[in-house]
Amino acid sequence: MNILAVSGPSQRCAEAGASLARAGGNAVDAALSAMMVALVTEIAVIGPGAGGFVTVGGPHHPPVVYDGAMAMPGLGLDPDRVGGGGVPVHIGYGGGVDTIVGPGSVAVPGGWAAMGEVWQDYGHVPWREIVAPALDHARRGFPLGSVADYYLNYSFDPIFSLDPRSRAALHNDNRRRKAGELIWVRGLADALAAISSDGVDVLYQGDLGEEISRDLLDRGGIITRRDLREYRVQKRSPILLPMGEWTVALNPPPAVGGVALAGMLAGVGHRPPLSSRRLVEAQMEVLGYRRSFVDDADDWRGGVGQMSARMLAGLGSPSTVNISAVDASGLACAVTLSCGYGSGVIAGGSGMWMNNSLGEIELTGGRFHGQTPGQRLMSNMAPTVLWNESAEVVAAGSPGADRITTALQSTLLSVIVEGSSLAEAVERCRAHVEHTPGGWRLCYEEGFPVNGFQMPLRAFEGRHMFFGGVSAASVGSGGDMEAVADSRRVGKGIVV
């Protein structure tokens, strides 16, 4: 048995990671297994057709980021096919969101490719044992979780009821299934069994990918077999940000999440006290720069690169799931994957709900199918690993769209600046600046000091899932471990 801490969005996810520890697995094994369970069971919040990033590292493990982000499809496709297959919808979630769903909104999913490559480099236990907990849930079915139920209150009718397979999986006796009711998705167990026995190549090179591509193309999507065959995980050197005794490893460009988080951390600095005003000012500086030079830019990749250089040189002064795990060796792994708001589409007989990353208007500059086939899409995700001179190690990440970076800013600075325990840091009250037609507005949780801020305010009672849902795990210099799941969402942390 290995000694480790793992945190995820539900009890069953954390238990999957713990079971891998008991089987001798390390932090990577535990994090991957927990994420696979999330892909199966966190309906609508995430899905098997996800993409994202894995950050691995620690004081004795050179840090690396595995980029499995979504890619623009359409390689080898007739250009006349591009631009269709999407359905514009509005959902009330998060104060109101416009997005595009349907088969044409599905980007090339890189999540499985990234997990497969990380396992090849770091895994200690057989691949089939890592997939086994997720496969078991797919075979037996599972109760719908409360967070998924909350999101489906907004998204079922406009998104997840449009596809007949999706509707059948979530609907019963002329009504949507509710929290606690059994969900069983036809075909999903067979797809996971193939991934378990043949590895991720069955999705990118084999029959499973063939079925998914054929079905999406038949319904107006643009993912070709060539898109899947030519998809490659990119191993990237992370942004390494020194913060006093701590070193923070974040995902680098072309993703914008790690760059923005680096700016928000550096903008506050590592010296106490942790000023709420400076925290908000750093958010405004970073998000204002991003809004002006990245989000709507024709060359947003160049904008992210310039933003990265400016963040680290000194700016001013200087629907997603995350799993975090650390083990006794100091190895830390943070995995963040996303399906956007969900396309509502189950591809073919695979049982796999797909992403709507091509329809995330806020990440595409409003240009549906406007990217070059094969290029990575913009991402807010920021799975992060940090360690200090005393060999303390933390892995952390969060869902929450553009609130990912502000949630992690608050959490990590509480650890770095104030020396807070992980539990205290995750539960610290948060604030997030958002841009409205009238300018900046400060969203804040009860307890966050707002006196003196000269801007419109939007208050939230208690701890609210609007402000993300951090999953974090740590090992202290004496070997003591902590695994924390944010109370803003129904998660669980387990120390084995």
Short description:
By secondary structure, the protein is α+β, with helices and mostly antiparallel strands. Helices cover 36% and strands 22% of the residues.
List keywords for this structure.
seven-stranded antiparallel β-sheet; six-stranded antiparallel β-sheet; alpha+beta; about 500 residues; about 20% strand; 22 strands; 16 helices
Sheet with most strands: 7 strands, antiparallel
Outline: globular
Instruction: Tell me the strand percentage band.
Output: 15-25%
| Low-confidence blocks of residues | 314-318
**Widest β-sheet, arrangement of strands:** 10-3-2-14-13-1-22
Q: Report the helical percentage.
A: 25-40%
Radius of gyration: 21 Å
- Strand-pairing-aware structural class: alpha+beta
| First-last Cα distance | 9 Å
Instruction: Return the average pLDDT rounded to an integer.
Output: 93
Number of strands: 22
Number of helices: 16
